[in-house]
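Proteins fold reproducibly. Look at a sample protein:
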Amino acid sequence: MATYKLFVSDMDGTILHNHTKIANETAEIVREAEAAGIRFAIATGRNYVNAKQILDEVGLSCPIVSSNGGRVLDTSGEVLHEIDLTIEEALQVIDVLHQDDKYADVFYEMYTEAGLVASRGDLIEASMKNLKANGDDRSLEMYEFFKNRYYVNEDVKIVDDIEGFIREEAGRVYKFIAFSSHLEKMTALWKEIEAQVEGVYVTSSGNDNIEVMAHGADKGNGVTKLAEHYGIDLSEVVVIGDNLNDVPMFKVAGKGIAMGNSHKDLIAISDHVTERHDEYGVANALKRVMTGEWE
């Protein structure tokens, strides 16, 4: 029977039961796995502070690969690895995003050393209205997420002069994430950033977004750094996720488990498929790994 020493889970669409919380039932299985000698970790596109808040709510403390691999931190919050965009790269991304004739309905956030930042509050408000008007489950889920982000918790700083902020206040810039319900614009934006900005890695955690990091800032490298830190061979690592930004860690780990709600391209390279995120898919997969059902 194969013995795995590290189990790494994505957050959105994976361990988060309803996009905002980890189910208590899942947290209990994580604790059982840790007691059995399987170290647990998170690999997420979210920033470290937000990811840790979600874990704290259910009493979990673990290493976190945040910003899609831009930052890797141990259980105590010590930074093990960081890779960020240069000021020039960040400004070039902004240049593409600010072409109003093409991307007038796209809003974006920037993950920085100084915190989570957004620009053009008018686009955020317009996008919120569109999400609510769409009425489908994904749109309403995202509407609630952004309502809490901007109007309840106020986690995001709105700045007018984003270029000036990058030059003078941001410190390290780890990631951009752009959103739009117009999927064809997400595809066009992805291609344009790749064509115009050298040294960046573009991926997605959903059809309605794209994420931009420095080249090398991906979950595969993040998980590799984490395994090295704990002296664990990559063959002894299990990863679980649901979307394209999880592909790099599936390529390096000993075992890759896709959620039932996963992107078809991730399912195609997975070793197993578990239940959906709202059907305790992570907890069930972890049980199968612990018992040896999935060697």
Notes: The chain has a mean pLDDT of 91. The two ends are 6 Å apart (CA to CA).
